[in-house]
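Lecture notes, part 5. Sequence design as translation. It can be helpful to think of inverse folding as translation between two languages: the language of shapes and the language of residues. The source text, in structure tokens, appears below.
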């Protein structure tokens, strides 16, 4: 009977994989090329697919097969991978049972429409236009928490939402890590602010004599994506307001980038970031195809892959020793600009307002601000109408800057419009994982710096494929990180990386 139950599970998992692919494709289309007038129809379509996914999870045959294989006798007879599948499926089914179908449909419709309300409010620089919708989204998330944890057993209600993105992580675990991270970054930032280079260094690339035509920027992003992911038949690139990556199927990964006026490096860094995500999706074992294990164990681990490529690799001096001559050919006005000056410019430290445009050093402060706000929002210590004021206060306190308009403040991110509360901390967790992994990669290959200088980045991809990607969801993030680095999550490697990189850039001696 075990074989029959596994066959049933395989059938339903394949169906869920296909439904998930349709949902992902609808979302990708909505954020790239969908006509604006189609938003209401897309909300209906998305709600229909979400309902189908929910119903499939709760199909009696599927539940019976999972329950039968969850009992101790049968469970012991399963392979390790199948045991992991059953654990995940049992958890997901138990969760789906608790959430009424009506709630799933209502939430899906709301978040689909909410995206367009957010875009409209952002374009019109008017937070009040989005507040009624955001309040509804928050209320539905609070309802969801009550469905999932009716007795309030969790130490913090935010833990329920966090578990969707970073399984096993809690507020109790994150708070001390983020406090160390916040204090460490602010300490480094204050030292840099006191340095002479900080007071005199300017963003050279902002000089209008340097020209970066949009079509050439997009050509460069394709070049970088192909350098990182040579199998170009398995991905495609489009433009969107907010860059993202999504997997449609095993051989279909979609990336997006964006070109921003007077920010020539934005398209480059956002694409190298998204190509890191794509590399993860394309690197998962083929044996996991169309199963619940064809996934990352947590969003934070996925984020670590994009952060490594965006920061440790493509912001490094070693990489630009190789790529700068090619970059100059693409943008001839840079021919008079020395590599050293270019490198200093792309790694300039300057507290700013927008998370996805900020420097590498202050990035995690942007994330921590969002984490602290949404944690208080879900704990009902503040309301949606308080977010903009609290946001501005924290930016002033942590970064010394204050938003001058909502699109560069509380309305800059798409996440809350989609109900992704609990997602933001994964960006900082991923950044910490990336530093741990980068340290280990360099221990394992003492010649890596020399290889990068020659444009040979194959070792990095192969190492990550072997140590991270191939596992899919067969192991937990903690297990994968421990196997790869022999450590559990800590802020120290990242803080040390920042000091090693930025102290020399700003002539700081410890």
């Amino acid at each position: 009977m075990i074989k029959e139950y596994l066959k049933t599970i395989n059938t339903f998992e394949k169906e869920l994989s296909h439904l998930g692919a349709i949902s992902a494709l609808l979302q990708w289309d909505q954020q790239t090329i969908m006509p604006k007038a189609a938003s209401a129809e897309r909300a209906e379509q998305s709600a229909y697919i979400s309902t189908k996914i929910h119903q499939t999870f709760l199909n009696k045959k599927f539940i019976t097969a999972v329950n039968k294989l969850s009992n101790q006798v049968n469970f012991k007879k399963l392979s390790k991978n199948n045991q992991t599948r059953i654990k995940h499926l049992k958890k997901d089914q138990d969760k789906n049972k608790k959430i009424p179908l009506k709630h799933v449909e209502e939430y899906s419709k709301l978040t689909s429409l909410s995206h367009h309300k957010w875009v409209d409010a952002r374009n019109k620089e008017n937070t009040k236009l989005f507040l009624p919708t955001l309040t509804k989204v928050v209320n539905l998330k609070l309802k969801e928490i009550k469905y999932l944890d009716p007795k309030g057993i969790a130490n913090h209600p935010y833990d329920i939402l966090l578990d969707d993105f970073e399984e096993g992580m809690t507020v109790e675990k994150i708070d001390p890590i983020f406090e160390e991270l916040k204090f460490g970054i602010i300490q480094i930032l204050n030292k840099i602010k006191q340095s002479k280079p900080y007071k005199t260094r300017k963003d050279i690339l902002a000089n209008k004599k340097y020209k970066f035509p949009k079509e050439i920027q997009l050509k460069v992003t394709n070049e970088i994506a192909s350098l990182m992911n040579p199998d170009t038949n398995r991905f495609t690139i489009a433009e969107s307001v907010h860059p993202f990556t999504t997997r449609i199927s095993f051989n279909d990964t979609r990336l997006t980038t964006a070109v921003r006026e007077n920010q020539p490096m934005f398209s480059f860094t956002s694409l190298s970031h998204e190509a890191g995500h794509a590399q993860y999706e394309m690197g998962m074992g083929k044996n996991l195809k169309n199963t619940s294990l064809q996934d990352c164990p947590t969003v934070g681990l996925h984020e670590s892959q994009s952060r490594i490529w965006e920061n440790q690799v493509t912001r490094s001096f070693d990489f630009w020793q190789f790529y700068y001559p090619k970059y100059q050919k693409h943008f001839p006005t840079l021919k008079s600009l020395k590599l050293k000056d270019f490198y200093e410019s792309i790694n300039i430290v300057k507290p700013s307002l927008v998370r996805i445009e900020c420097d590498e050093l202050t990035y995690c402060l942007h994330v921590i601000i969002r984490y602290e706000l949404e944690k208080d929002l879900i704990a009902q210590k503040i309301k949606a109408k308080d977010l903009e004021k609290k946001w501005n206060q924290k930016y002033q306190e942590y970064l010394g800057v204050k938003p001058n308009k909502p699109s560069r403040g509380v309305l800059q991110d798409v996440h809350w419009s989609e109900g992704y509360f609990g997602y933001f901390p994964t960006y900082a967790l991923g950044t910490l994982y990336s530093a741990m992994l980068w340290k280990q990669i360099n221990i394992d290959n003492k010649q890596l710096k020399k290889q990068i200088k020659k444009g040979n980045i194959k070792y990095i991809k192969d190492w990550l494929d072997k140590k991270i990607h191939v596992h899919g969801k067969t192991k937990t993030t903690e297990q994968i990180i421990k196997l790869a680095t022999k450590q559990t999550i800590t802020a120290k490697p990242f803080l040390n990386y920042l000091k090693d990189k930025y102290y020399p850039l700003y002539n700081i001696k410890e």
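The translated text above is only one of many valid answers, since several sequences can fold into similar shapes. The chain has two domains: 2-153, 171-505.
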